[in-house]
Amino acid sequence: MVEEKSINLTKVDEIINSYEGKKTNLIAILQKVQELYSYLPMEAMTYIGTKMEGLSPATVYGVATFYAQFSLEPKGKYVIKMCDGTACHVRGSMPVYNSVISRFNLKNGKYTTEDGMFSVETVSCLGACGLAPVVVINEQVYPKMTTDAMKVILDDIIKQERE
Ligand code: FES
């Protein structure tokens, strides 16, 4: 199980204040908090719901779960985004995705490895269809991906992490 990061509520406060604590800015506030932690920690959502006028923790949680852009689970150190837009799908994104899922033995809706090293997710078109199938690992874009290339890339990351 991936540990929740410890939460700096002063930073969450700064974000709330930068949006003047207005509940109409809740989505923007949640986006900023997610940028900070790469997911929405429960502690931060509860804090926002308690601190901001006109909201409750349940409302904030409801909003966060409604929008697919928000993640409520801590993510791995490496977030592997597999494009499954039409061009990537047609050019074989799913075999690459399945090879990663099976390598890390991810099942039953689990998308992060036990050691917290990798998270795997599918995303819609990344706007680089000429390079399909496209994979993004953290900020790095990998074009024309194959299962073999993916294996080499993951082997490299794992090797680097062990050094
Ligand atoms: S469909 Fe994958 S980049 Fe457009």
Task: Explain what this protein looks like in three dimensions.
With 163 residues, this protein is an alpha+beta fold. The protein folds into 2 domains: 9-66, no CATH class; 78-162, Glutaredoxin (3-Layer(aba) Sandwich), CATH 3.40.30. Helix content is 45%, strand content 11%. Strands 2-1-3-4 form a 4-stranded mixed β-sheet, with helices on one face. The model has no long low-confidence stretch (mean pLDDT 93). It binds FE2/S2 (inorganic) cluster.
What is the helix/strand order? HHHHEHHEEEH
Main beta-sheet annotation: 4 strands, mixed
Radius of gyration: 18 Å
Give the integer mean of the pLDDT values: 93
What is the tally of helical segments? 7
CATH architecture of the largest domain: 3-Layer(aba) Sandwich
Our measurement of the CA-to-CA distance between the termini, rounded to an integer number of angstroms, reads 24 Å
**In the CATH scheme, what's the topology name of the largest domain?**
Glutaredoxin
Residue share in β-strands:
5-15%
Q: What is the level 1 CATH name of the largest domain?
A: Alpha Beta
Ions, cofactors and other ligands present here are:
FE2/S2 (inorganic) cluster
The helix/strand class is alpha+beta
